[in-house]
Design brief:
The protein is an alpha/beta fold. Helix content is 47%, strand content 15%. The chain has a 7-stranded parallel beta sheet, with helices on both faces. Helix 2 links the parallel strand 2 and strand 3. Helix 1 packs across helix 8, helix 3 packs parallel to helix 4 and helix 4 packs parallel to helix 6. The protein is globular, with a radius of gyration of 17 Å. The termini are far apart.
Length: 240
């Protein structure tokens, strides 16, 4: 297999687990990071330990011009991607009446605008290559049902679901599948120290693991998932 997949936000947590799992499946991985170069280099070493190849790529997904310049240069140098996993995102939780403009803007600019900023320079080259492909976005249980203190995050993640479904329709005849994975409470640095009472409201009575999310993403990127598109797969222990 000589297929390359870009994984955004792959320096830690779910993104790192996805990158490693895809490398284990034989894909070459472009490890994207925003600021955490050291973490991205650790991910790259783990990819190489799986016997795969990879490289680092950095840009701010909320900066449209920066995304376009970095991705167009990447395609010119290394060629077109087979797949894209849009994992990078941020949270700025606060009760809506107390929410600052900056908290709303940062989350929407990164999590939702990032969808457009990253995919816009990449989709047409994938179409032109006529080799099919895989796009997987990361939403959240918050985007499915909403969550207290996360109006901004829920809005962005719900928007990702809608955008994913619409893009899937546009690209279906090109054999490019577009699907979404919506994790629940997953043990990462973003959710470290989850209170025990949170785990108790999950039917499976535990938080999830990054590797469990990565397994769903890896399946959607596989040849076996060639007839699956426009879907949202929840990995949440039965919360929804």
């Amino acid at each position: 297999m000589d297929r390359t997949i870009l994984v955004t936000g792959a320096s830690k947590g779910i993104g790192r687990a996805i990158a490693i799992r895809l490398a284990r499946s034989g894909f070459h991985i472009v490890v994207h990071y925003g600021k955490d170069q050291a973490g991205a280099e650790e991910t790259l070493q783990a990819i190489k330990a799986e016997g795969s190849r990879g490289r680092l790529l950095t840009f701010d997904i909320s900066n449209r011009d920066q995304c376009r310049a970095a991705l167009e240069a990447e395609i010119t140098t290394h060629g077109i991607y087979y797949g894209i996993v849009l994992n990078a995102g941020i949270a700025r939780d606060n009760a809506f009446p107390a929410m600052e403009d900056s908290e709303w803007d940062a989350v929407l600019d990164t999590n939702l605008d990032g969808f457009y900023n990253v995919l816009r320079p990449l989709v047409m080259p994938m179409v032109s290559a006529r080799k099919g492909g895989r796009i997987v976005t990361l939403s959240s249980v918050s985007g499915l049902v909403g969550n207290r203190g996360q109006v901004n995050y829920s809005a962005a993640k719900a928007g990702i679901i809608g955008a994913t479904k619409a893009l899937a329709v546009e690209l279906a005849k090109r054999a490019i599948t577009v699907n979404c994975v919506a994790p629940g409470v997953i043990e990462t640095q973003m959710t470290s120290g989850v209170p025990e009472e949170v785990a108790q409201i999950i039917p499976m009575r535990r938080v999830g693991r990054s590797e469990e999310v990565a397994a769903a993403v890896a399946f959607l990127c596989s040849d076996e998932a060639s007839y699956i598109t426009r879907q949202v797969i929840s990995v949440n222990g039965g919360m929804v």
